């Protein structure tokens, strides 16, 4: 986690990415990296917090108020939005941590917020996997999906998914704690003595398997099957759906791959890279940049998984008209507050309806 501030035997602070110990050399000073992080990270994560909070709260509101959670896709979308909101709740604390260079929230809050950070991270990825499988079943195995895509099944799988995410994040609840080794309280992982490297490598491998390799593998398999099925079906929206598939995969790859690769290099630096101060600084900087990119995914999720759906957009327009447009129309001349866009009276074909439900 790039928010961590780790003070090790090197005698200086970095952002918790590559704590090297140079027993034979002068300390590796990283004050420039620290200053860059304290200047760059707070405004970036403040922007992520505002946009992500607004987008995901709108998703939760529309799903609960209008779509009533009557289909499996909406239940998974709700859980995905909750995962993103859980992550966003922790962001103001990490911003304060980076700005003031100390942890002011106590021992238990350090454990709790660090655990929530990774719980949200894993649950977000797992629910993206479930949404991918849900789309695959709805399009490729439509008959089977009629029996399995129920509210009960979605609720059970959601509970199991949260449990698996909790197990994946459990080490963070255990090892993160508030420390006061240098006169100022910090919130860092404290691994068993002599096992630090093993646990860091385990963390990197766990993130790369669950956060990159597994979801990409499932996406490739499921979306390949969906594209083959769509190309055989006569409908008016298959090309739009196929484009959306590629957008989903490319966005996921761009947002998560750099962070996971840097995390892997950081954990296995003695194997892949020379053990030098300059390499350590490069990895610290790369970790800060790539983790910002990865965490920005919580702002993109509402757009690519909810806002692109026709029903969701229809309900969003309805909400805007009822709660915002009429109010603004009283104060802004020519604002269309009294009229609402009429939906087309032409009913879509069965194939189009099927695609609209899952895309």
Question: Your description of this structure?
Answer:
- With 359 residues, the protein is mainly α.
- It has one domain: Up-down Bundle (Rhopdopsin 7-helix transmembrane proteins), CATH 1.20.1070.
- The protein has helices spanning 31-67, 72-100, 106-140, 142-148, 151-175, 196-232, 238-267, 269-272, 277-295, 297-307, 310-329, 350-358, and strands at 6-7, 13-14, 176-179, 186-189.
- Strands 1-2 form a two-stranded antiparallel sheet. The chain has a two-stranded antiparallel ribbon with strand order 3-4.
- Helix 7 (238-267) runs antiparallel to helix 9.
- The longest helix has 37 residues, at 31-67.
- It is globular, with a radius of gyration of 23 Å.
- Mean pLDDT is 82; it is low at 5-25 and 338-354.
Task: Describe the structure in brief.
This protein has 359 residues and is mostly helical.
SSE blueprint:
Layout: E1 6-7, E2 13-14, H1 31-67, H2 72-100, H3 106-140, H4 142-148, H5 151-175, E3 176-179, E4 186-189, H6 196-232, H7 238-267, H8 269-272, H9 277-295, H10 297-307, H11 310-329, H12 350-358
List keywords for this structure.
mainly alpha; Rhopdopsin 7-helix transmembrane proteins; 359 residues; globular; two-stranded antiparallel ribbon; 73% helix; 12 helices; single chain
CATH homologous superfamily designation: Rhodopsin 7-helix transmembrane proteins
Query: What do we call the CATH topology?
Result: Rhopdopsin 7-helix transmembrane proteins
Q: Helix coverage percent of residues?
A: over 70%
Proportion of strand residues:
under 5%
**What value does the average pLDDT take?**
82
Number of strands: 4
Radius of gyration: 23 Å
**Number of self-contained structural domains:** 1
Named at the architecture level, the CATH assignment is Up-down Bundle
| CATH domain class name | Mainly Alpha
């Amino acid at each position: 986690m790039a928010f961590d501030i780790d003070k090790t035997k090197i005698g200086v602070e970095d952002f918790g990415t590559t704590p090297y110990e140079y027993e034979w050399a002068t300390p590796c000073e990283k004050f420039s990296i620290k200053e860059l992080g304290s200047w760059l990270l707070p405004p970036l994560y403040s922007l992520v917090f505002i946009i992500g909070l607004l987008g995901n709260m709108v998703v939760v509101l529309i799903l609960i108020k209008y779509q009533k959670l009557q289909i499996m896709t909406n239940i998974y979308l709700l859980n995905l939005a909750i995962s993103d909101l859980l992550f966003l709740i922790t962001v103001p604390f990490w911003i304060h941590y980076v700005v003031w260079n100390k942890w002011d929230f106590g021992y238990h809050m350090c454990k709790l917020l660090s655990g929530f950070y990774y719980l949200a991270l894993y649950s977000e990825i797992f629910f993206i996997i479930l949404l991918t499988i849900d789309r695959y079943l709805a399009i490729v195995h439509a008959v089977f999906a009629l029996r399995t895509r129920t509210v009960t099944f979605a609720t059970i799988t959601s509970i199991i998914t949260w449990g698996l995410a909790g197990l994946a994040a459990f080490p963070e609840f255990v090892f993160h704690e508030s420390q006061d080794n240098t006169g100022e309280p910090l919130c860092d992982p404290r691994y068993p003595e002599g096992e630090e490297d093993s646990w860091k490598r385990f963390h990197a491998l766990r993130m790369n398997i669950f956060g990159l390799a597994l979801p990409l593998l499932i996406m490739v398999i499921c979306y390949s099957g969906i594209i083959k099925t769509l190309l055989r079906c006569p409908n008016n929206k298959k090309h739009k759906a196929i484009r959306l598939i590629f957008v989903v995969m490319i966005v996921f790859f761009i947002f998560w791959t750099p962070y996971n690769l840097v995390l892997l290099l950081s954990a296995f630096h003695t194997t892949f890279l020379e053990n030098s101060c300059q390499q350590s600084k490069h990895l610290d900087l790369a970790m800060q940049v790539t983790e910002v990119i990865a965490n920005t995914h919580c702002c993109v999720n509402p757009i690519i998984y909810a806002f692109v759906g026709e029903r969701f957009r229809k309900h969003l327009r309805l909400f805007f008209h009822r709660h915002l447009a009429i109010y603004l129309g009283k104060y802004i001349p020519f604002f269309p507050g009294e009229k609402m866009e009429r939906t087309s009276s032409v009913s879509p074909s069965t194939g189009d309806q099927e695609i609209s439900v899952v895309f």
